[in-house]
Amino acid sequence: MTDTTVLSRRLGGQGLEVSAVGLGCMGMSQAYGPADEAESLATIDRALELGVNFLDTADAYGEGHNERLIARALSGRRERFVVATKFGITRDGPMAGSVSGRPDYVRSCCDASLARLGIEHIDLYYQHRVDPEVPIEETVGAMAGLVESGKVRYLGLSEASVESLERACAVHPISALQSEWSLWTRELEPEVLPAARRLGVGLVPYSPLGRGFLSGRIVSTADFTEDDFRRRNPRFLGENFERNLELVALVRQLAEEKGVTPAQLALAWLLAQGDDVVPIPGTKRRVTLEENAGAVHVGLSVAELERLSNLFPLGAWSGTRYPDAAYRYGQSPRRN
């Protein structure tokens, strides 16, 4: 059993300190097939033992189930965790799955998340997707009000554009930007990454292992259950899948040369991009958590980093990040 301890990093300039690797909890409630609640809770227990104290959830995950699950894990030890959750993707009604940044919606979502989580304040509160129909100044203004009232400590955005980040930071400091970033998704690097650093915003990469692909363990989509999101993800389909398998074989080869797992190599590459980067690989199993946490102790030389970056440049992987259906109602992973 791994006995390493994960060190901490700071997100933004407002004092938010978290473990250098976080735990994405979405898969404990949706998207990646069935989960065992007992194992999910044991995974959070093990995370704390390893020093992984940064839990990431959202009100939309499992239609509230994920926040209620985390509430059970927090019981009696709330102060030992840093809890991040999100609002913005509507959960019910005729427009379920659409995006809302209306100030009244912001406030109601926060109160509902606090109730489900069973806590008095949220450590990091993200807008899950920027609402193109509501000026971000209005949304962030409402979020700032939550900070003033003590319901939220720090603010974040997810999948935001440079313009949205700049406008948001003009209203209230933004501590973190959560966006997809990994060896297999590098679209934020040319423009969004330097803007975030100029504005003093920390980076929280989600899906840092390419939805499991960079682990090197996925060889066939037939292994996915019918309700697994990846059965409909373009990068896991047909010719895209076959082409991507060829690329992930290179990750596996480099990892073997280094004496680490492919997942650890991919996470180590991200961690080496800067001390303001805190990836949140998702898992619902202790054994995977332990593997991911070990990445903080994998050192990569300048030559190794350059080799990885050159092998997997922007656009190397085949297929879009999401199926077309995910772009409806403005719930677009394209940055707004």
What labels would you give this structure?
336 residues; alpha/beta; TIM Barrel; 7-stranded parallel sheet; 35% helix; globular
Written account of the structure:
The chain has 336 residues and is of the alpha/beta class. The protein has a domain at 8-212 and 271-298: Alpha-Beta Barrel (TIM Barrel), CATH 3.20.20. The protein has helices at 37-50, 65-74, 103-117, 136-149, 162-171, 192-198, 238-258, 262-271, 286-293, 302-311; strands at 8-11, 16-19, 23-24, 54-56, 82-87, 122-127, 152-158, 176-180, 202-206. Helix 5 (162-171) links the parallel strand 7 (152-158) and strand 8.
Strand order of the largest sheet: 3-4-5-6-7-8-9
CATH fold call of the domain at 8-212 and 271-298? TIM Barrel
Radius of gyration: 19 Å
Low-confidence stretches: 325-332
Instruction: Tell the overall outline.
Output: globular
Structural class: alpha/beta
| CATH architecture identity of the domain at 8-212 and 271-298 | Alpha-Beta Barrel
Query: What is the CATH homology-level superfamily of the domain at 8-212 and 271-298?
Result: NADP-dependent oxidoreductase domain
Q: Summarize model confidence as the mean pLDDT.
A: 90
Can you tell me the CATH class of the domain at 8-212 and 271-298? Alpha Beta
Element order, helices and strands?
EEEHEHEHEHEHEHEHHHH
Strand content: 5-15%
